[in-house]
Amino acid sequence: MSKQKLELTWIGKDKRPRLEPRILLEDPARSYHAAHRVTERDIFDNRLIFGDNLLALKALEQEFTGKVKCVFIDPPYNTGSAFTHYDDGLEHSIWLGLMRDRLEIIRRLLSDDGSLWITIDDNEAHYLKVLCDEVFGRANFLTTVIWEKKYAPKADSKFLSSSHDFILVCAKNIDRLALNRLPKTEKQTSRYTNRDNDPRGPWKAGDTLRNEVRDYAVFPVMLPSGREVFPSAGTSWRYTKEKFAELIVDNRIWFGVDGDARPAIKRFISEVTETIPATTVWRYDEVGHNDEAKKESKVLFGDGVFGTPKPERLMARILEIATNPNDLVLDSFAGSGTTGAVAHKMGRRWIMIELGEHCHTHIIPRLKKVIDGDDPGGITQAVGWQGGGGFRYYRLAPSLIVNDHWGNPVVNPDYNAAQLAEALCKLEGFSYAPSETRWWQHGHSSERDFIYVTTQNLSAEQLQALSDEVGGEQSLLICCAAFHGVTAARAAERWPNLTLKKIPKMVLARCEWGHDDYSLNVANLPMAASPEPTDASAVPCWGAKVHGGKTADSRQSGLFQEGEV
């Protein structure tokens, strides 16, 4: 039987946005830094970006590809309440398409040893898991964590009361991933006692039996009380007769207070690791719950409580496992800013993206309190946070290309010369780095390849002067409004160290210019007509597509099948 790969498909999957790589403009009035250093570990160059999160992710791609250690996102759960005007299939299709576009950029931003953590619920969790398999590769899917978000059942639930959300965890490269272990809790260490005052310290009793019969490990053991015991039926000792004798001599076998109990091995706390691996079930008493998050939000914002906050302890658990101090953390659905607040307190660098006005009403005031040391809630006491550090506030620049009064595409008049140079550097794959000594050097792609951006019309004499100054060992891309006195073909022959491109013609076909909102808010999407189907064949179908085979109706046979057949 030949193997046929199955993949998740949906309406419009083949449509991909041609994103404009916008530049970021800092607003110093909204950036904020502590008045002085609190510790030598203070981090000041964090970033808060206001704007559409897909465009913002694209804006980060050039500078931060391969540099983000941990991405946490808490996307809209797609419960259906916002999709009143869409049929069920189109609802899922819109959500999956928008998530796919974001996941693809997130994967590029992650470092090879980085990981992605996504909170989600039942509505899309299983579809999202398969989408993650497609983007990251199935082998790089790590696990699904169960977060107990509620501590009591909801009495008016129609069927089952939902007590948990999921956290999907993906690695950029599972072979490079290294997650941290967690310190043992006080509850776990309290199991160690010292009932016989052993000088080696506290211990706990462990089993000396294995659940299988090995003939060489079936023998009598003489208890201090004088009674002999054998392994129970179907079992044998974990140790040979000789090893058992050594353990008894070393006082590592416990026979009970009266010396008449079945033998147990003493496991000393001093001989075990101080950490344990994280499990896939996170209880509310360990990482917080919804009510705790809302109480934290109320302390921070008063009556302006954010709708769906996450508790700081939950975010701290993720960062404790996935990052180390000074690692870079990204959250492209910042919400009320929990990720940045927690990362800041834990000494991680962070980038947050948020489009909603709560970027200004919630996130900035919250971060100011963290930086000023005026946020006593959340994990502040647990990590000993006293304030410090800062962040830079950025907004997405407007689209580089707009239409003039006659409908002709032109460079946006809101761009100044520096912004235009930076934008074209990004579009052409150059790092924007204006030279203080070379007026024609606005950026570089290597040590010998440079870019010059000007809105002037350049003459042959000016081009000759540029060519002479650049020299034969270097190259210069010139982006200008026009050049005259020579044809493009002739220019390439005459000045082999120069490449000429005209603005804006050089970029017109690159992107979707003027598209400012790719958000997951369905109110920003075009309305879809919903004609009544006349027969079963007219119903929109989105299902499991078999390469080289037929498409199965997902409403009957399921949306996808995992693996290969």
UniProtKB/TrEMBL annotation:
Domain DNA methylase N-4/N-6 stretches: 68-361
Gene Ontology terms describing biological process: methylation
Upper taxonomic lineage: Bacteria, Pseudomonadati, Pseudomonadota, Acidithiobacillia, Acidithiobacillales
Key word Oxidoreductase present: no
Organism of derivation: Acidithiobacillus ferrivorans
UniProt xrefs under InterPro entries: DNA_methylase_N4/N6, DNA_methylase_N6_adenine_CS, N4/N6-MTase_EcoPI_Mod-like, SAM-dependent_MTases_sf
Alphabetical list of Gene3D superfamilies matching this protein: Vaccinia Virus protein VP39 (3.40.50.150)
Pfam families registered for this protein in UniProt: N6_N4_Mtase
EC number of the protein: 2.1.1.72
SUPFAM superfamilies tied to this protein: S-adenosyl-L-methionine-dependent methyltransferases (SSF53335)
GO molecular-function terms, A-Z: DNA binding; N-methyltransferase activity; site-specific DNA-methyltransferase (adenine-specific) activity
Region Disordered, annotated ranges: 187-206
Protein name in the entry: site-specific DNA-methyltransferase (adenine-specific)
Record-linked PROSITE patterns: N6_MTASE (PS00092)
Family note: Belongs to the N(4)/N(6)-methyltransferase family.
Catalytic activity entry: a 2'-deoxyadenosine in DNA + S-adenosyl-L-methionine = an N(6)-methyl-2'-deoxyadenosine in DNA + S-adenosyl-L-homocysteine + H(+)
Keyword annotations from UniProtKB, A to Z: Methyltransferase, S-adenosyl-L-methionine, Transferase
